[in-house]
Structures are given as structure tokens and as C-alpha cells.
Amino acid sequence: xxxxxxxxxxxxxxxxxxxxxxxxxxxxxxxxxxxxxxxxxxxxxxxxxxxxxxxxxxxxxxxxxxxxxxxxxxxxxxxxxxxxxxxxxxxxxxxxxxxxxxxxxxxxxxxxxxxxxxxxxxxxxxxxxxxxxxxxxxxxxxxxxxxxxxxxxxxxxxxxxxxxxxx
Length: 167
What we know:
By secondary structure, the protein is mainly α. It is built from six helices and three strands, in the order H-H-E-H-H-E-E-H-H. The protein has one domain (2-166). 74% of the residues lie in helices and 7% in strands.
């Protein structure tokens, strides 16, 4: 059965997996980022997760409400845990220095495999899409995972404010 699922998977899904893998590995290295690059990941993953909810459930308010609650939860949790921990801002270059981390790769893979599993499950069991509890759970999962990218970006951007206060 797994081979049948993989055989029916469109080729672009494997290409997307490879791109996400490369992007995630690049996140594991220390780097300097401008504001636009800091905002890039949430700008990509938040709309994609919203589209995933819409694509799976249509205009289901419970799914979108759960998504919104989860994004907020991710931001609040990251305010507590402060990830990434090693962030600094260099005012002269307007660059953020961010330590490398495997967390973005883990989140990208979690989003990818969750979306893949949900697509397979709903293709095999179409009635799942009409279950409010399933819609809420999926909306929450998508929101929590993509919300981590927003939370991470906000944490990095906070370094600029901290640098202004320190001077």
C-alpha cells in the first residue's frame, strides 16, 4: 500500500521535499540576515498553511479558528522559550546575526509530512474532511507549525529593538 501511495504522488512533491531539505540544511549554519530575509520564512509558510486548511476543508470556521489560535500559541510559547537564543543585531550593517539551528529543518519536515499524510488520509477517507474535530485538529497543527516561523522571525527582529535600548 505504501508503494501505491508513493507511485501516485505527483513528481513535484518530491521536488518540493528536496527544496525544503536544502533550505532546512542551510538554516543549520550561522548567518547574517537582513529584515527581508528574516520575514521570508513566515511570509511563505503562513499563507501556505492557510491554503492547506482551505484546500482540505473549504470555509470551515472551526479549522480557521484553530489555525489562528495555534499561530498565537506558537508566538506566546516562543516569547517564553526565546528561540533562537543566539541572536544579535549589528546596527552599522543592519544585519541580524543568527546562530545555526536544526529546528527550522525539523519544522519544515514536520509541515511537509503532515500535509502529505493529511492529503493521503483525506484521499483515502473523504468523509474526514467533513468532521469538525478533524478540521480543528488539522487547522491547529498547521497553525502551530507555521506559527513557529512567525515566532522565530519576531524573536530575531526583537534583537534590533534590544540593540537600540542598549545604546
